[in-house]
Write a structure and sequence with these properties.
The chain has 14 helices and 13 strands. With 417 residues, the protein is α+β, with helices and mostly antiparallel strands. The protein folds into 3 domains: 117 residues, no CATH class; 152 residues, Nucleotidyltransferase, domain 5; 78 residues, no CATH class.
Length: 417
Amino acid sequence: MCLGLHKRPLNRLELAGETLRAALEALACAAPDWPADAVPVREWAERYGQRTDSWHPPASKAKRAEMALVYGRDGFALLEAVRSPAAPVWLRDLPALRVLRTVWMQNYHRTVTAAGTEVKRRESEDLPPGRLRLASPYDTDARYGLKQGSWWTGYKVHISETCDDPVPDPADGEPAPRIITNIATTDATVTDAEMTEPIHQLLAARDLLPAEHFLDSGYPSAELIVAVKRNFGVALVTPVLLNSSPQARAGAGFDRTAFTIDWDKRQAVCPRGSTSTWWSPASQRGAPAIVVKFDKQTCQACPVRDRCTRSRTGGRSLSLQPRERQEALDQARAEQISEQWRTKYGTRAGIEGTIHQAVAVTGMRRARYRGLPKTHLEHAFSAVALNLLRLDAWWNGHPLDRTRTGHLARLDLSLTA
């Protein structure tokens, strides 16, 4: 289960202003006698004396753009002053100054014109990748995150918990609680699929690997299904992306599953019995693949051509993954449409209760500390607290609610009983 962690997000204008303010604060503290001779202290104290989140920026887009350029020019002026011969050399190594240099490099650039040096903001397409771009001058590990249309600044936490068949307590018959077994924290740009193998490594290090691991659809791929089974002996029970071919999306015609693949002979046979004439390894989006093609003349004369390919001149072609991955993917796709698999996957439904409990009880949606190590420690303590709550409720015969129920609804249920 993946949960996004939020900090107060700063837009690019606020990020520039607050980064410069933080640098000036650090300089005023570390070398109080130096800034008075190097920068316009009174003017900048008025401009950068308050945090950027304590006042509202101009409503006009043009005025906000001009303010951003003012920040840019002041920031470059401060960086030049710090590097001047009159400035103490050690000022350059202040953490706040290093952050200022990075943020300015990522958000501004200077060009030399006939009138002099001109400061410009970088356009959106010129910004560095999200994994490298700083999102806060106070937490250099935090990053901008996007998932299913939701934006946030900060981290992600991945929670693993037990989901074995409930074992009733001999004394009162109550099922055993689900226990959190692993917490993994990353910055907000790390995808779920990138964490699938590291999470299993963490579980293996503490001898907590399950025989079957129930995951949501963001974690698996054909490569990972094979790798996790081979390296850890764990079967991933998870929805996989369905076939995206036009025939599969339309639910009509012959999709890839209608073709018989003979891996040993490196051939494919179509539903009409024709054999492919081309089998070639390839690379698609950086991943190994196999391209299979059928003779175009054979396809043009086929009476069911319209149900097989949309190409007007060529023959049918197929894209396959390497054999082990393709067979694992085909098996997973075939299993997940069965009622038996859906019932089995329903075991994972309780994870939504864990998400709610983590957010409502420990406030896990908000990161209280700065930096990835401290944030991860916070998550680990939160998981311990949740486990203690669950064990306490179980020991005392008060099982935690599986769903959210309001007080009025509970009253109605008690009166009905």
